[in-house]
């Protein structure tokens, strides 16, 4: 990862050859004189690209004090490398270094020192520390010594501690994921026979989670490990996919109970008995002077049709079996709520709430590690 910083880079050193006596204690010099005198060959170790500003004239300042001390200031824009570990993304914190030192002179020839202490050697403008994606927590300074084939060199270091702002990712990723999971659990409250509606809920939420995952990954560098956001989205995807599997399970048993619930048999019995009753009625109306009465027998399962005539002949009774029981039982079996749906209505929201509670408690309360100067020396 890279970051860009705009700095006023100031160096001061003493050259005994440039002492002078005169009415002025500090002598302003033209920046063109910098090429005529000795200057440190400072370069940035982790700099990818550095630009010196030249508009409208070179942004450089050169001052000479009567004791031979020179102050050399220039304005630079530096693109520096910042190693980032994104395991906690987007609740991550980073210490981005800025390292500089002499290119050719070893520590036996040139020694770099922070001249004004930790607080004043590096100062950050209040307006300049307002970043869109990060909060600047502070900075620490120090120095290191590195060895190479040509000798040992002093490296001056400054670490800027940054903490990423999470607001953008909450709006763009976390809230849509949470709402998608909640939407997938609405299908548990739909009728188990509403196959099209529950299928739309399941497939749509799975595709939505896939789209969110791809868009979130596009904003990240290609890292080989999973970030905190990846884990959150993976768990959300698991909840959504489990809701779809739950519907498939319920639908499978719904089809089998439909085949066994006796609805077809009940309707067949009702049709056959209706035909028999129609035949008997049509035959009886041809007899003149005969009256009919329908009585309910004591046995609740039988219905009695009584026939009497004016001649006083004994009544004949025809018994019809009660036809409603198989069909009624079939309707009760057909419309019952699945026990799997009942359990899922409780288990899924509770587990998702526990996961969110543990996830946010873990990452929000994690304090960033701030390095101090003692760790850098």
TrEMBL record:
Pfam families tied to this protein: Neur_chan_LBD, Neur_chan_memb
Membrane spanning residue stretches: 166-190, 231-254, 346-364
Key words, A-Z: Cell membrane, Chloride, Chloride channel, Disulfide bond, Glycoprotein, Ion channel, Ion transport, Ligand-gated ion channel, Membrane, Postsynaptic cell membrane, Receptor, Signal, Synapse, Transmembrane, Transmembrane helix, Transport
Compartments, record wording: Postsynaptic cell membrane
Residue intervals of the Neurotransmitter-gated ion-channel transmembrane domain: 173-258
Keyword Lipid metabolism: no
Protein name: Gamma-aminobutyric acid receptor subunit alpha-3 GABA(A) receptor subunit alpha-3
């Amino acid at each position: 990862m890279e970051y860009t910083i705009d700095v006023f880079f100031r160096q001061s050193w003493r050259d005994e050859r440039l002492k002078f006596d005169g009415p002025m204690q500090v002598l302003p010099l033209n920046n063109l004189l910098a090429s005529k005198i000795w200057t440190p060959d400072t370069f940035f170790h982790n700099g990818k690209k550095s630009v010196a500003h030249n508009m409208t004239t070179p942004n450089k300042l050169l001052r000479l004090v009567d004791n031979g001390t020179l102050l050399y200031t220039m304005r630079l824009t530096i693109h520096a490398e910042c190693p980032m570990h994104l395991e906690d993304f987007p609740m991550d914190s980073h210490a981005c270094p800025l390292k500089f030192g002499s290119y050719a002179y070893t520590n036996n020839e040139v020694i770099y020192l922070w001249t004004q202490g930790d607080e004043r050697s590096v100062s950050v403008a209040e307006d300049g520390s307002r970043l869109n994606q990060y909060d600047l927590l502070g900075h620490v300074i120090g120095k290191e010594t590195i060895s190479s084939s040509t000798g040992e060199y002093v490296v001056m270091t400054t670490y800027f501690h940054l903490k990423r702002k999470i607001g953008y990712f909450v709006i763009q990723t976390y809230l849509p994921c949470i709402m998608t999971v909640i939407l997938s659990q609405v299908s548990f409250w739909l009728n188990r026979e509403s196959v099209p509606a529950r299928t739309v809920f399941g497939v749509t939420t799975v595709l939505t989670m896939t789209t969110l995952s791809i868009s979130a990954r596009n904003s990240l560098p290609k890292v080989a490990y999973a970030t905190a956001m990846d884990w959150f989205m993976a768990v959300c995807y698991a909840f959504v996919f489990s809701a779809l599997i739950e519907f498939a399970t319920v639908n499978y048993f719904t089809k089998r109970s439909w085949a066994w619930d006796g609805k077809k048999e009940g309707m067949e019995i009702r049709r056959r008995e209706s035909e028999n009753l129609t035949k008997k009625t049509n035959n009886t109306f041809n007899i003149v002077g005969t009256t009919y009465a329908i009585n309910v027998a004591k046995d609740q399962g039988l219905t009695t049709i009584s026939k009497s005539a004016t001649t006083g002949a004994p009544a004949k009774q025809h018994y019809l079996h009660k036809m409603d029981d198989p069909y009624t039982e079939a309707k009760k079996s057909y419309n019952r709520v699945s026990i799997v749906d009942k359990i899922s209505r409780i288990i899924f929201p509770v587990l998702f709430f526990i996961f969110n509670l543990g996830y946010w408690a873990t990452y929000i309360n994690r304090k960033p590690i701030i390095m101090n100067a003692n760790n850098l020396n």
